[in-house]
Design brief:
Elements lengths: L1 E7 L4 H5 L12 H14 L6 E4 L3 H14 L3 E3 L21 H8 L16 H15 L8 E5 L1 H11 L17 E7 L7 E9 L12
Parallel strand pairs: 1-4, 2-3, 2-4
Antiparallel strand pairs: 1-5, 5-6
Helix pairs in contact: 2-3, 5-6
Bound molecules: 3-phosphoglyceric acid.
GO molecular function: phosphatase activity
Protein name: Probable phosphoglycerate mutase
Keywords: Glycolysis, Isomerase
Amino acid sequence: MTIVYLVRHGETQWNAQKRIQGQADSPLTEEGRIQAKQVAMRVKNLGITHLISSDLGRAVETAEILAQVLMLPVQTDKRLRELDMGILEGKCVSELTPEEDMIRRSPLSGTPDARIPNGESMQELANRLHDAIDDLRMLPDGSVPLLVCHGLALGCLIGTVMGLPAHAPRRIRLRNCSLSRIDYQAGEWLAEGWIVETAGDISHLESHSADEL
Ligand SMILES: O=C(O)[C@H](O)COP(=O)(O)O
């Protein structure tokens, strides 16, 4: 069985301002760095062997804090990036026009093939994420990778592992530095494939942690 831990990066300046990031970026806040240390302590004794991060700065910054505790190098994989949110990246949710807000919600509200102009669809996001996790099955036996990723990306990954379509409305909360786990099971008794073991656990965080937009 392959075990994969999933961590959403720590709080960023734009998360705190409710500004849309997508594949744009902003640095962690002080709170975000504290969250990263707390999730690092949580996973310290889980036998993590590989630390793989989205190549966006906020994820790498979180991964580097984990790396100091886990004493592992950080590898990056651009397939773990957040949904490309096109023309809305960099905008504050409170400043969107009603039309922009409808566009923002469209990929998250059950509309197949919805995409923010110049962005990507949830199916395209799901495809690259599943390519990335399927590659983890090629790691040597006993490997336990931890991925540092993003809110919409992890929500899409967990939803699709559970059999929901990529465009299904979001029904899971993935706060900054929440911990999730998926396993690849291949036993005789159970359907072969990825399965969700834990999603969105924040029991290791000592203060408030924000939901994604
Ligand atoms: O702002 C965004 O792009 C998303 O809503 C949250 O993304 P994040 O998990 O990278 O903060």
